[in-house]
Here is the input.
Amino acid sequence: MNSRIVDHLVASEGLPRRSGLAFDYVLGGDGLFVVAANPWLDLRVPVARCTVRGLPPVYTACTLPHDRLPGATQLSRTRLRRSLDFHPNALLRRAGGQDRTPLEG
Here is the structure.
C-alpha cells in the first residue's frame, strides 16, 4: 500500500487508479488535475490547463455518489458543477471535511 499523502500520476492509458492518501496530481492530455475523493464527493479539478500530446484527456469531473452533500441539501448538481470551475478550493476543502460552511455560488 502506498503511504504517500499526495501522489503524482500520469494518465497514459486512461484515468489511473487513485493512490495518494489525501489526493493525487494527475497529468492528462488536457492538463494537470487534482483528484480527490471521500464518501460524499469525487472530484477532478484542473490546476493547470495545457495540451499534452500523446496522453488521453482527463476532463473535469464532480460525482456525488449519494446524490447530495451533508449540510448542502439545496445545492443542485448543476450548481455544484458550475462552482467547480469558479471555486475549486472551496469544494476541495469540503471534500476533505475541513470546511463545514455552506458553499457560496
Q: What stands out?
A: Strands lie at 6-10, 23-28, 31-37, 42-49, 61-63.
